[in-house]
Amino acid sequence: MTKDTPENIDKKLKLSNFPEEIDTENGIKIYEEISWENQMAVLSQFLHNGNMETSRNEILATILGFIEKKKELYPDLEIEPTFEFASMVAESPSHYSLFRDFFDVPFPNPLNGNHTLIDLFAGIGGIRLPFNELGYRCVFSSEWDKYAQKTYFANFGEMPFGDITQESTKKFIPQKFDLLLAGFPCQAFSIMGKRQGFADTRGTLFFDVATILERHHPQAILLENVKQLTTHDKNRTFQTILRILNELGYKVKWKVLNALDFGLPQKRERVIIVGFLSQNRIDAFNFDFVKQPYTLNGLLESDESVDNSLFASEKILEKRHKQTEGKNIFYPSIWHENKAGNVSVLDYACALRTGASYNYLLVNGHRRPSSRELLRLQGFPDNYRIVVSHGEIRRQTGNSVAVPMIREIARKIDFILNNVD
Question: Which of 162, 237, 299, 347 has the greatest number of CB atoms lying within 10 Å of its CB?
Answer without folding.
Answer: 162
